[in-house]
Amino acid sequence: MLGEQYGELKGKITGQRVLDVEGPTIETSVSVSGTLKGVSVQEILTFIGTPTAEKGVIHGVGKGVITTMGGREGGEPEMVSYTGEGIGRVESSGSIKWRGSVFTRKQYYSKTSGQTLSSSESKGEEKLSFLNNLVGVFESEIDAAGNFSEKLWEWK
What we know:
The chain is mainly β. It has one domain (2-155): Porin. The protein has strands at 2-20, 25-36, 39-51, 57-68, 78-90, 96-109, 116-117, 135-142, 147-155. An eight-stranded antiparallel beta barrel has the order 1-2-3-4-5-6-8-9. A hairpin with a 5-residue loop joins strand 5 and strand 6.
């Protein structure tokens, strides 16, 4: 069942490179910011896109890291890593509309030790604890100028 929308992010492509000309396979990196359940976050995402047998359709597999703003909002910064997979459809305008799913794994960063801690070792307020083992679905779009926008919903 589709749950409530928990995130909205906007940003821009920061880089692209060709990994293989057979296919072709293209790696794209994106930097975005926005909110997840009202918490200000920044995200970096890298995904690999490969055209499918259907014209104008791309299969993408990606990995990303989400971080809270930390000091400005109080508390230690938190980090969440995730993997995702989706299908993109190239529009006549040159934009690509993506639909897919993300699988998150909560991590905590300790400023004092510089080590990643498990959720059982973390202390204090956990702004992104709702992302622990969350499965989400997304709609995103990259326009012809490289602008990126995304909305996320929990899949219950």
